[in-house]
């Protein structure tokens, strides 16, 4: 059984996510919603913060960002969480050109932190499941594209950060073998006996030092 062992720089999984997010902000100027234009960021965040009306419908379109190919909407999922979805319309066929009927694609839009968290979580799990091998950009993109609105460039950057030997964020290592209950108790008893012997010896040494008789004084300490 393999597990992720995190470096002292990040300490745990959340530390890896925060590290990569800081890097993305500083190096790539990633916005709160990575695929959304900068001039719509605050409007979209306000729309999401307002949420859905408690007595209203379970879905609400966002009309500030709407064109012929993409639409945004706020909706409530099966667990009650409010999420943002992107509906991507198929391209219109050119004049005189026949094409197969394509349905709109409905994808989940995550914010920056959620996006990085998702990619890293899946990348680590892949390495655990595949004996330490790293997932490729194409493999990750293929898995995520059916559900999420995340670009290949976004995936590539996150994977480059966690796979870089210069960053040294975590390693995938084998779990230490689990001891049986009997072995655990045996180890505890050994440790306790060692502590008791150490305490007894320290007491005798103090008494010998106090009396000044050294070894000739014998066992003068009363353990009763």
Instruction: Name the structural class.
Output: alpha+beta
Widest β-sheet, arrangement of strands: 2-3-4-5
- Note the beta-strand portion: 15-25%
Give the fraction of residues assigned to helices.
40-55%
The major β-sheet equals: 4 strands, antiparallel
Mean pLDDT equals 82
- The general outline is elongated
Rg, nearest Å: 30 Å
User: What is the strand tally?
Assistant: 6
Oligomer: single chain
What count of helical segments does DSSP give?
Answer: 6
SSE succession: EHHEEEEHHHEH
Low-confidence stretches: 206-224
Intertermini distance: 50 Å
Number of domains: 3
Compact description:
By secondary structure, the chain is of the alpha+beta class. The protein contains 6 helices and 6 strands. Strands 2-3-4-5 form a 4-stranded antiparallel beta sheet, covered by helices on one side.
Overall description:
It is a single chain. Helix 4 (137-144) packs across helix 5 (152-163). Mean pLDDT is 82; it is low at 206-224. Strands 2-3-4-5 form a four-stranded antiparallel β-sheet, covered by helices on one side. The protein is built from six helices and six strands, in the order E-H-H-E-E-E-E-H-H-H-E-H. The protein is 42% helix and 17% strand. The relative contact order is 0.13. The two termini are 50 Å apart. It has 224 residues and is α+β, with helices and mostly antiparallel strands. The chain folds into three domains: 1-32 and 111-177, no CATH class; 50-92 and 101-110, no CATH class; 181-217.
